[in-house]
Amino acid sequence: MPDYTIHRDRLFSLLRDMVDIYSPSNKEEEITAFLLGVMNERGLPVRVQQVDETRSNLIICAGERPRMLFLGHIDTVPAFDIEQYSFNERDGLCYGLGTADMKGGCAALIEAFTCAHEAGELSGNMALALVVGEEETGDGTRALLESGRFERALVAEPTNLTPCLNHYGYVEMIIRVFGYRRHAAMSDRETNAIRALLRFLLEVETRIENNEPDTVLNIRDLHSAESGFAVPDRCTASLDLHLPPGCNAAAYAEEMRRFAGQWLANSRASRYEIDFPTLADGYCTAPQDAIAQMLLSALAKLGLPGNPASFTSHSDANLLKEAGCGTVIFGPGQLAKAHTFDESVDFRQVETAARVYRCMFGC
């Protein structure tokens, strides 16, 4: 029986040290330097890939042209409180910024590759990429894909150790509504940009609730002109629309553009603008696909449940699939805990994930 054990104390220390380093998107230099030192100390075959003038990806690979990619991102969202983002443990849960999304997954990947290297089992067919920028533009993964292609990939986003073979699509929608600036005492429903946009957002919510039960809508931001004691002359909203697999993101965006145009044209807004900065199609990976078989086989060998599900967020997996790479998502932590004030991960899940990743090397 192959040995899929990992070094718990080493894994715990690595996760703790990673979380204690503040690494929001575009400020990943410190954690990149730290992890490069860790990998060099462990004798792992690591190389640095430049993404821009100051930021880099780290790639572990013993071969020239690996076909199988394990991917994690080392950036996080900004801290809610810059004084309280660091690591702490209570009752088996590890708290801190990025514990779930996704330093727990990255630490598990590094431990799995370290154990395989120490045992002489690290195949030249396998690569681990720790990328920057996932929480913003995905520039780390874009740079990775510009340098080479992979046949299959696993992304260690938080799935609560559930194998996610399917992935939601994503539409980012920005709406700007313009009205008429005037004295606050002269405000009415027809001239106030905020009121016009709020009424439209309620229409969007109603449309989705009544007709699209599987679509996830998030009204992310709402900003208006800081007018003082006056009617604001403009208001902007940012929307996240997570679409079930099989929904064409570009076609959906155009339908939303028509819907918004028809509604806003009948409002008293002086004008409006609609943009879609990000469009990403979802996908379905068949259980018979090679990467799905690798993951499901590893789970079976370790006696873990293998009931597939869908990943409902946007991630770098969309970019990998777009590049023709068969992709699945599997990692420790819960998506519901990510980006929260009390973000956490159960360390037992981090241990289990590391064992699964190592087991996949032989599948």
Q: Would you tell me the overall average pLDDT?
A: 92
- CATH superfamily label of the largest domain: Zn peptidases
The order of strands across the largest sheet is: 1-2-6-3-7-17
Q: Biggest β-sheet, characterized? A: 6 strands, mixed
Number of strands: 18
- Low-confidence runs (pLDDT<50, min 5 residues)? none
Radius of gyration: 23 Å
How many structural domains in the coordinates? 2
What kind of oligomer do you see?
A: single chain
Intertermini distance: 14 Å
Please, could you describe this protein's structure?
This protein has 363 residues and is of the alpha+beta class. The chain has helices spanning 8-19, 29-41, 99-118, 139-147, 193-211, 249-265, 290-301, 316-322, 347-360; strands spanning 46-50, 56-61, 68-73, 88-90, 93-95, 126-131, 152-155, 164-167, 169-178, 182-183, 216-224, 230-231, 234-243, 271-280, 283-284, 309-311, 326-329, 344-346. The strands form five sheets. The chain has a six-stranded mixed beta sheet with strand order 1-2-6-3-7-17, sandwiched between helices.
Distinctive features:
363 residues; 34% helix; 2 domains; alpha+beta; elongated; 18 strands; Alpha-Beta Plaits; four-stranded antiparallel sheet
